[in-house]
Structures are given as structure tokens and as C-alpha cells.
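Before drawing any conclusions, I looked closely at one protein's amino acid sequence and its C-alpha cells, quoted below without any editing.
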Amino acid sequence: MSKVRVRFAPSPTGFFHIGSARTALFNWLYARHTNGTFILRIEDTDEARNTLESLHALMDGMSWLNLDWDEGPKFEKDGSIKEYGDYGAYFQSKRSNVYLEYLEILRKNGRAYDKDGAVFFKVSGQTQVLNDAVYGDVARMEEKDFPIFRSNGTPVFHFVNVVDDIAMQITNVIRGQDHLTNTNKHIELFKAFDAPMPQFAHIPLILKSEGEGKMSKRDKGALIEEYRDKNFLPEAVRNYLCLLGWNPKNGKEIMPIDEIVGLFDFSGIIRSNARFDEKKMAHFNTEHIRALPAEGFAKLAFSALSKDKNIANSSEDYAAKVFKLCQAKAVNLESLDGLVSYFFTENYPYDDAAKERVFKKGEAVSRMKDSLDMLSNIDEANFTSTVLHDEFEKLASLKNLKITEFFPPLRFALSGLAGGPDLLPMVEVLGKTKTLERLTKSIALFA
């Protein structure tokens, strides 16, 4: 069996769409699963719509998702484009001579003729049976001859697509189910060239979140750039896209990419279309964030919040402790500021709803005063969550109260909030000086 060679062949005419990303991902997964080759081939013959900006968006999006390609164009550090691989050029706009050579083969075999200034392909009129890796046997007949070169001399998609697959020795064509109706044309062309037929696998479409039809670039949440701008983890986006139309058959959803690569095969691809669910992808993002090593999360968090001068000017050691403490409560990096901001400023606001909850029993200030007196007597060196817990236990026993009756007022005084990370580790991270200062300030405000 020849080495697997798959390709992703987009047109750089806009932003990087979720559907395109999922097609690229499935090709990449199959290449990595089989130790094959993943090729990026650019269909850029539409000069009116293709732009360098769109090409950047496409390649940056693929790189962000860590979909590294083995052959194809890449941007160099100086902004130039260099092509890697032995089967180039990898831009269709640079392959005119190849297309003319293959056209001549069809002419010699009597399978191409001129009509109204264009060039048409003469079909066989026979039923073509596609053995699709997902849909099984699909029988279709192409009844009418179809154009392969336009009257302006430019080649048509069906022709260049097949020619490039033959010339680049593509073994597997993995693409959207909407291309299934094109495949009988392509089979006709492969046979006309007496070329090896690749294994086709048509993958289900991605439907919009609500309503009918597949997801378009105009639909909310359809562009990869949106998730990068919102500081989603690329691992989370990639993990979710893997499950749009593929079932690992192990009952798991949140998985590292190496595990997915090991499991990926056509037998797991589902025939029915997959509905996009941004809330579910956000859930995947949360799970991946919480599973990060503490050091890795701290670096991402610091980068995401670096525009906040209070955070940017804090010590890395202190910030790392804060982020480690708050990681388990993080939902996403976009809203992380609201979870950690009070650690980095003394001008934190007091939430009205939190104040109402804390002061409902009427003893909040008294609890704050008791906490202040007790905490003042703990040495800085012993200001740890373990010691703090023991001292609060003693205080609660002395006052004939439950330990938890001291915690809501203390949290509110220190953060202005009613919820957050585990309280006593939070007090430890803030340290004795900040804790006492904040308690003193809050008592003065609310007494």
C-alpha cells in the first residue's frame, strides 16, 4: 500500500470558516494517524476574490490550531512565501502548464472538444459507482458533457481538482458531503486519465446553531478568528471540531490530541450532519483550561490580562500564585479579569448583590472585627491556610458559632464579592498585610 497523501485545498477568499477548519482537521488527523503526508494546496484561480490578507488568515488559523502541513506554502519571517515539497507549485495560479499538459492528453484520447470558445469534457455515459469510505457505494451517472476550460481560457474546478490530485499522488480525498454530487464528474476524469482512483471520504456538513441549513461565514461563531480573539484555547477548539461528525466510540469527549490521532479513522465518521453548538465548545474550553498545568495556565492568563497595568506591574511570583488559586474557577480567559482583578488593586468595588447577601443576618461587621483581631495575632510566617483554619476553628468555638459564619463577611471584605476561589488559600495568597488592611477598610466603610 502506498503512503497516505491527503490534501486540504481551500480558496483564500475570506476568513477561516469553522467548516473549512474541520475539513483541514480531518485530513490532518488521518495523515497523522497513518504516518502519512498532509498537503496544503491553494485554489487561487479566482483573481477577483483571492487576497493576500485571506491567505494570511487561513494559514494563521491553521497554525493556531496546530494543524502543521508537510507540503505547501509557508510565510517566511520576512513576509515572503516559500513552497515546501516535491510536488509544487502548490498554488493553482502557478500550475497553468500542468493543466495544459493534461488537457492535451484528453484531446489525444478524444475526450475533450471545443464548443462556443470553451473546452468540454466528453463523458462516458456510464453509471459510475463510488465506494465512499463514509457513505458506502454511491451510484450516479453523468449524462451531459461539461466544461473543463472556460471561454476566457481559465480551467474549471472539476478539472484542476482532479489533475492536481493525480499530479500530487493524492491517495485519499476527505471533503464535505456537499461535494458528493461532484464526484461522478471526478471519477469520469480519473478514468479518462487512466489514473489511480483515490479513496473518497465525504464528511457530514456542519449545520448552523439554530434554523435550517449549513453554517455559513455570516453565522454567529462561524469564524476561527473569533475564538482566537476571545482567547479560547486552540486545543479546546480543535477537540470540539474533532467531534463534529466523528465518534471516538470510547464514551469520551474531552481528549488530548495524541489520543484522538490514535483513534481517528473513517469508521468513526457519522453520516448525519452535525449541528454546531458554541455553548458546548465553550464547555470544552473550560475543561481544557482547568486541565492545564498550573505553570502553563499562569503564562496564558498573564498574557491574556497583560493590558491591565495592575497585573502587568505585579510580581510574576505573586501573579502565578493568584492564577494557580483561581484556575479551578476559571470559565474562560476572556472573563478571567473579573475573577482575579481584586488581587491586584486596593480599589476593588463592592458588589451590591453580594453586600445584600452578606449583611442580611446583620452580624457581618462584628464577624469582620473578630476576624481582624484574630488574624492580627498570627505571625506572617504562619499565615497559611492550614494555620488559618485552625485559628478560625478556635475563634468559632470561643464565640459559640460555626466556622462558616465568619467566612462570607471575610470574603466580602477582602474582595467585594460573595464567591470566588477557596477562601483560606485566597487569604494566604493575599498575605497578612493586605488582609488586615482590607478588613480595616471594610469595617470602617460598613460599621
